Amino acid sequence: MAKRIDISDLDAYYGNFLAVEDVNLAIEPRQVTAFIGPSGCGKSTLLRTLNRMHEVIPGAYVDGKVAFDGEDIYAEDVDPVNVRRLIGMVFQRPNPFPTMSIAGNVVAGLKLDRGRKVKKSEFDDIVERSLRGANLWDEVKDRLDRPGAGLSGGQQQRLCIARAIAVQPQVLLMDEPCSALDPISTLAIEDLVRELREDYTIVIVTHNMQQAARISDTTAFFNLAAVGEPGKLIEAGPTQQMFSNPANKATEDYVTGRFG
Amino acid sequence: MNDLTSGLKRRRATDKVATGVVYLTALIAIIPLVSILIVVFSRGIAAINAEFFTSTMRNISPRREGGGIFHAFIGTLEQVGVATLIAVPVGIMVAIFLVEYGSRGKLAAAVSFFVDVMTGVPSIVAGLFIYTCFILTFGFDRSGFAAALSLTILMLPVVVRTAEEMLKLVPMDLREASYALGVPKWVTIIKIVIPTALSGIITGVMLAVARVAGETAPLLLTTFMTQSLNLDVFSGPQAAIPTFVWDQIANGTNPSMDRAWAGALVLIVLVAVIYIVAKVLAARFAPKSK
Questions:
Q1: Which residues contact A173 (CB under 8 A, 6 or more apart)?
Q2: Which range among A10-19, B41-50, B209-218, B280-289 shows the weakest confidence by mean pLDDT?
Q3: Which of A109, A147, A160 sits opposite B182 (nearest CB)?
Q4: Which of A126, A168, B9, B191 is most exposed, with minimal Cβ within 10 Å?
Q5: DSSP 3-state assignment of A114?
Q6: Quick one: CATH architecture of A5-99+171-255?
Q7: Strand pairing partners for A65?
Q8: pLDDT at residue A1, as a whole number
Q9: Share of chain B above pLDDT 90, in %
Q10: B172, B183, B187: best mutation site toward chain A, by most A Cβ within 10 Å?
Q11: Helical segments of chain B, H only
């Protein structure tokens, strides 16, 4: 069910400000693609253009093409709601719904979206499958009716991953999913990403280069010429090559920690 | 004396004085509140009995003891109830428009401005507006419904403002989390944003209800009053607790004054009950973490 994404000639704007300029990139299915680069280089912005979350911010828009298995998600007759049904997202800060239980959070996407025809009797199975998928089941199976906001930060983030995979998307976008977590929770999430890779196309934004090196198959490096200038894709390639023998000097400086 | 201890005495003294002033002002602020409660309870309790709650003032002369507040209690419940039924959905929808849809537009700025202006409208002006518009211009009779409309005008800005503030407190993260699951915007508002803000919205609504339950002036212009029970909110004069108190004081006889105090006591208790219900509901709907 995993699908590929081809980004071509993509510019992303916030009002008049060009945040990301002229990105061309192919994201392969059943792989982990990592976006790395210094703060403000547009990697999170680019990630959010992939499921049309970018335009949720007032004044933000996109120019260019993002093909999801060949079909442009920015074509005029495409409903952004449908795009987001197929391309799920995990955010930087864990954001479980505070009014819902742990189980309620997991099936929130199925319950709230009437376009999905899922019977209530299947909910229990989906809760278990999704929580197992997010490596959280054993920790919460005895308190599924407790509020999701009562979990620790790392558990909340795994709950958010369970919520994202419960709707069975084709692609999972992760926007610095570990930046608010402690090292042990980070490790748990990284293990999870490696497992999810079997079934999903995963794009992950990270500030942590070791993390990119550990979990990704492909790495894309972004940079900006100066503050106020648009971010650009400098180079992308197999992770191993990007970290050992990058083609571009700026990439080498960044991955070896000389700046950024 | 070294750097670590210098000025300690002075700072402690300043701290004591400031603490004292804060406590004192708090006490001063409480005095009128407590004295009102004590006076209303001690004077009002005299006329409180079963008859007071179950009978009206029909055929009771001001000089006689007896009679009751039943007609006024029903009137207040109906008028405030109708006002709430109109003001709450409209107010919440206006707040949704302001926060979720119009956040940067000119229309939102205009609506927001007029809501602010409405907050400052004196209650008698709200009554006059309904009187001239609904009764004189459109030719409807005085009725509890007309009174409810004037109370609606007073409730609306309070409901809009509190609902708006509560909706603004809902983190953008939650909306984005919902959108990212492929949930449409309006479902997100109804199922995620409103439930998260519900506790605060309920508190705001109940405070607005408590505020208009004690209004007198707009009722005199729109439904006036009666000594008899009128169950029909849509026709004819209807009593209400505030106008009942006003009428009994105007009579000036001893039994009437007792009834006026008792009426005031009932009104205070009613508002207190509304407030407690609001607190309980708000606690029940508040997002929990345990």
A1: A47, A48, A50, A51, A87, A88, A89, A90, A202, A203, A204
A2: B280-289
A3: A109
A4: B9
A5: coil
A6: 3-Layer(aba) Sandwich (3.40)
A7: A8
A8: 56
A9: 83
A10: B183
A11: 8-44, 50-54, 70-96, 106-119, 123-130, 144-169, 172-180, 185-188, 194-213, 217-222, 241-251, 254-285
pLDDT band at B147 (very low <50, low <70, confident <90, very high): very high
Average pLDDT over residues A60-82: 94
Residue extents of the structural domains in chain A: 5-99+171-255
Q: Are residues B126 and B20 in the same domain?
A: no
Distance in angstroms (rounded) separating the CA atoms of residues A217 and A233: 17
- What's this model's pTM, rounded to 2 decimal places? 0.87
- A179 contacts chain B (CB < 8 A): no
Task: State the amino acid at position A34 in one-letter form.
Answer: A
d(CA A141, CA A157): 16
Name the minimum distance, in Å, from the CA of B186 to any CA of chain A: 10
Q: Inspect the interface and report whether the beta carbons of B192 and A89 lie closer than 8 Å.
A: no
Domain that holds residue B35: 9-47
Q: Terminus-to-terminus CA distance in chain B, angstroms?
A: 51
User: How many CA atoms lie within 13 Å of A95's alpha carbon, on the beta-carbon side?
Assistant: 22
Judge whether residue A258 has pLDDT over 80: no
CA distance A4 to A170: 9
**Domains identified in chain B, total number:** 2
Whether this model's ipTM surpasses 0.85 comes out as yes
The whole-angstrom separation of Cα B176 and Cα B182 is 10
CA-to-CA distance for A154 and A71, rounded, in angstroms? Answer: 35
- 3-class state of residue B4 by DSSP: coil
Touching B: A residues 123-152, CB under 8 Å: 146-147, 149-150
Q: Looking at the domain assignment, is residue B39 inside a domain?
A: yes
Q: Does A68 touch chain B (CB under 8 A)?
A: no
- Beta-bridged to residue A68, according to DSSP, are A5, A71
**DSSP conformation class of B138:** S
